[in-house]
Amino acid sequence: MPKIPQHDAHHIVFGAGLIGCYLGASLIKSRQLLSLYIKPEKADELHAHYSISDYLGNTYTVSNLPNLVDKNNIDNLHEKADVLWLTVKCTSLEDVIEEVKNCIDEQTIIICCQNGVNTHKGIKLAFPQNEVIRAMVPFNVVQKHPGNFHRSSEGNLTLEVTSTIETSIKWLVSQLASDNLPIDISYQMTALQWAKLQLNLSNAVNALIDVPVKEMLQDRRYRLVIALLMDELLKVTKKQKIKLPKITNLPNKWLPVFLRLPNAIFNLLAQKMLTIDPLARSSMFWDLSANKTTEVDFINGKVIDEAAKLDISAPGNRLITALIKKREHGKTDTHVDILKRFDSLLKSHK
User: Fold this and answer.
1) Contact (CB, 8 A) for 287 and 293
2) What number of H helices and E strands is found in the chain?
3) Its pTM surpasses 0.85
4) What residue stretch is flagged as signal peptide (predicted)?
């Protein structure tokens, strides 16, 4: 049974992008021994400046850089990880398995921080000798300027607790929790991932309409589409008899109802939901902007796949997925065309 050393435990954040760099600085703030497995161009950026901030005004600047490692200088990694935080996107998991092997031994606890539901299973198959657990990352991280990583929305990082390493995970949480990184635990991670997936269904809508998340939520035209996507997910989880934990102020089944309220009422009642950086956008928007493959197959696509198994219709998530795929292939609809597709979808469900 792996046990995290209570002194000088070595953490590796593997795939230090926005979430990974934010997590890394938070670990340094908590006085953890850290290595960042990072792209060379990101290393140059961190050498110039490395800091984190959040929407509540908390800030922290890293004064002494951690060990920076990439596949070309793996010799810089002097010891294996006690804890490896795998923060690459779902789309990259299969591609990094060989590189991960260089960072771990059989005692390493691997924490998978991906979106989606049960996306960690490939890692469990690749590393059957290791404890592999899941983390749910509820907040967005944006980059306001080079070297700064800004948590733009609320939520507690949540780590899965399993019977074999319960004590170690609880101890880890006690060491890492801070103002910059509030942390919780869960014994029901699959249900929690479905609850998070419900919220993530809006990512694709945000990517398509090209406005900040806050502006999107303030507009009922977009909320109606998101509510429909959520309805389809809730039909799936109801038929699967999955009880979704509440991760917002409202129970999950009431979120679509709330989103359908008129703008004046919604904007009055949703002040906490709207306590986000006014410039924040979904990660899927940034992926499309960078011509990267998105995670739509693991988010909206997951609803489509599970709905098909249960003979449930999911036209909303099918449309959104198709529109994102079209964007991935460089074909761009106008904003007016997107709104027309949304209107047609909503009219067919009245």
Assistant:
1) yes
2) 15, 12
3) yes
4) none
Give me the pLDDT at residue 278, please: 82
List the structure tokens of 17. Answer: 């992008």
Contact 259, 54 (CB under 8 A): no
Instruction: Round to whole Å and give the CA distance between 333 and 314.
Output: 22
What are the residues facing 12 on neighbouring strands? 35, 84
- Three-state DSSP class for residue 31: coil
Cα 191 to Cα 5, 56, 82, 187, 196, distances in angstroms: 30, 28, 27, 9, 9
pLDDT of residue 310: 98
Element (H, E) at 193: helix 189-200
Q: CA-to-CA distance for 120 and 301, rounded, in angstroms?
A: 16
Closest CA to 199 of 289, 116, 134, 118: 116
Q: What are the mean pLDDT values of the chain's consecutive 10-residue runs (350 residues total)?
A: 75 93 96 92 91 93 93 85 96 94 96 96 96 94 91 91 94 92 96 97 96 94 98 98 91 95 92 77 91 96 98 97 95 90 89
Cα gap 144→191, rounded to integer Å: 33
CA dihedral (340, 344, 349, 350) positive or negative: positive
Query: Domains plus CATH for the chain?
Result: 10-187 (3.40.50.720), 193-347 (1.10.1040.10)
Q: What is the CA radius of gyration of the chain?
A: 20
Per-residue confidence (pLDDT) for residue 3, from 0 to 100: 67
Query: In which order are the strands placed within the sheet that holds 83-86?
Result: 67-69, 33-37, 10-14, 83-86, 109-112, 131-136, 157-160, 183-186
The DSSP line for 287-316 is HHHTT---SGGGTHHHHHHHHHHTT---HH
